[in-house]
Specification:
The chain is mainly alpha-helical. The chain is built from 4 helices and 2 strands, in the order ββαααα. The radius of gyration is 20 Å and the shape is elongated. The termini are far apart.
Length: 98
């Protein structure tokens, strides 16, 4: 289920639940330690959540559109960046990916 926020961005029910958990976390900490500024900590939580959501969307897209897993798609991306066929063996590929 989705809603549209004031900015016009769709917001899913699970995202609202996450917002609620973050607000609960903030209010709990604020009740115990009002002297602490948790804005950077909470920013990290939000960024981590966004990364997880992007990862899930990437995996679903890879599976639904191409029938392969996310890690398999990343291997294909790496091979594509390297160039033409037979240009990269295991030692060279691992050296280039570092």
């Amino acid at each position: 289920m989705t809603d549209v926020t004031e900015s016009g961005v769709e917001k899913r029910t699970s995202d609202r639940a996450t917002d609620g958990r973050i607000k609960d976390l903030l209010s709990t900490w604020d009740a115990v330690r009002p002297d602490l500024d948790l804005s950077e900590f909470l920013l990290g939580i939000v960024v981590n959540r966004m990364g997880w959501m992007l990862e899930v969307a990437f995996y679903r897209t890879c599976r639904s559109k191409f029938g392969i897993s996310g890690p398999d798609m990343r291997v294909l991306f790496a091979l594509r960046r390297i160039g033409g066929p037979m240009r990269c063996g295991p030692p060279t590929c691992s050296a280039r990916s570092s």
